């Protein structure tokens, strides 16, 4: 499970504090050095770790903590609060348009889980009473259209496609017209991915963005790729100014660095997390619950 290694190490470092009645500045220093190492080993961005540790340290050697009857508990509380802050503080929801349909554009690199997540998100919204339409705009990967159709039929969500001979911008525009006529209140556009970020892909995504003016651009990144996921997020965000991130494969043995770095590095929230291959395994991301899970 993600964060397993980090959780063990952080808990170990903080448990040592619990065995001391009163804390000295040196005790906090030693613990923070261990916290720092644990975060770096979990592949959290170096700058993020430095800032995190210095914030926790500063707060921990404050009057209230050192003078309190349970200083170790206070330090743990601070670590919990700062982990929560690092991941965005509170959950970040989808902004629905007051004038439906709400248009959601999914983007990301090939293999990140974009098509699966487009379907999962449709399923989640359908359960909440929405009437989504999935749109197949990935015309390059041979099986992508078929894959979205299979996902749609499993979830009983309609899929709009025009084959692979049309320009994705035209497909997206036609899909929105179609959706409006059919009363779809959410339109989820699955765009093309590539193995690496390239100009052509970005240009295509920028064109779609310009033409359809989405309410939400969600970037799908693979948690297993660690700091690469953070770099991908930085790059996509720079070009597209995304609204949020979906972090997939958090059910795997990712070390957790992406989850803890993306918000701080890009200033964009993680909105959902993928917790498995099954189509109902997409969850709203709750920073506070994730922090509590890390601290046990
Ligand atoms: P795309 O190329 O970005 O559209 O990626 P796909 O949607 O085809 O997904 C790539 C692979 O990742 C597939 O085998 C998915 O089943 C798998 N996948 C997607 N999301 C998750 C997740 O949250 N957990 C796990 N374990 N696998 C996932």
From TrEMBL:
UniProt-listed Enzyme Commission number(s): 3.6.5.4
UniProt keyword annotations, A-Z: Cytoplasm, GTP-binding, Hydrolase, Nucleotide-binding, Ribonucleoprotein, RNA-binding, Signal recognition particle
Enzyme class: hydrolase
Binding, GTP: 108-115, 190-194, 248-251
The reaction(s) this protein catalyses: GTP + H2O = GDP + phosphate + H(+)
An example Gene Ontology molecular-function term: GTPase activity
Signal peptide segment: none
Domain SRP54-type proteins GTP-binding: 269-282
Top-level lineage group: Bacteria
GO terms of biological process kind: SRP-dependent cotranslational protein targeting to membrane
Cellular component terms (Gene Ontology): signal recognition particle
Compartment(s) of residence: Cytoplasm
Entry's family note: Belongs to the GTP-binding SRP family. SRP54 subfamily.
Domain notes: Composed of three domains: the N-terminal N domain, which is responsible for interactions with the ribosome, the central G domain, which binds GTP, and the C-terminal M domain, which binds the RNA and the signal sequence of the RNC.
Description of how the protein assembles with itself and partners: Part of the signal recognition particle protein translocation system, which is composed of SRP and FtsY.
Described purpose of this protein according to its UniProt entry: Involved in targeting and insertion of nascent membrane proteins into the cytoplasmic membrane. Binds to the hydrophobic signal sequence of the ribosome-nascent chain (RNC) as it emerges from the ribosomes. The SRP-RNC complex is then targeted to the cytoplasmic membrane where it interacts with the SRP receptor FtsY.
Protein known as: Signal recognition particle protein
Organism field: Gottschalkia purinilytica
Shown stretch of the complete protein: 1 to 296 of 447
């Amino acid at each position: 499970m993600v964060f397993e290694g980090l959780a063990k190490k952080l808990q170990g470092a903080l448990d040592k504090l619990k065995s001391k009645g009163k804390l000295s500045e040196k005790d906090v220093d030693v613990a923070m050095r261990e916290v720092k190492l644990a975060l770096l080993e979990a592949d959290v961005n170096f700058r993020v770790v430095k800032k995190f540790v210095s914030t926790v340290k500063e707060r921990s050697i404050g009057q209230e903590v050192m003078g309190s009857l349970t200083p170790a508990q206070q330090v743990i509380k601070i670590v919990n609060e700062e982990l929560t802050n690092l991941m965005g503080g509170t959950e970040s929801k989808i902004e629905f348009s007051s004038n439906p349909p709400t248009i959601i554009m999914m983007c990301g690199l090939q293999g990140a889980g974009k098509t699966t997540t487009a379907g999962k998100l449709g399923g989640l919204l359908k359960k909440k009473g929405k009437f989504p339409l999935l749109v197949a705009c990935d015309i390059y990967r041979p099986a992508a259209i078929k894959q979205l159709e299979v996902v749609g039929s499993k979830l009983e969500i309609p899929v709009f496609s025009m084959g692979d001979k049309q320009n994705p911008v035209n497909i997206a525009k036609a899909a929105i017209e179609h959706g409006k006529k059919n009363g779809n209140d959410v339109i989820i556009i699955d765009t093309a991915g590539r193995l690496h970020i390239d100009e052509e892909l970005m240009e295509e995504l920028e064109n779609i963005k310009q033409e359809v003016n989405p309410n939400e651009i969600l970037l799908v990144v693979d948690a297993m790729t660690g700091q690469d996921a953070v770099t991908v997020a930085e790059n996509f965000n720079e070009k597209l100014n995304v609204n949020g991130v979906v972090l997939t494969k958090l059910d795997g043995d990712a070390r957790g660095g992406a989850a803890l770095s993306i918000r701080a590095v890009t200033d964009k929230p993680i909105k959902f997390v993928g917790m498995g291959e099954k189509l109902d395994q997409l969850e709203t991301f709750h920073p506070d619950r994730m922090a509590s899970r890390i601290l046990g």
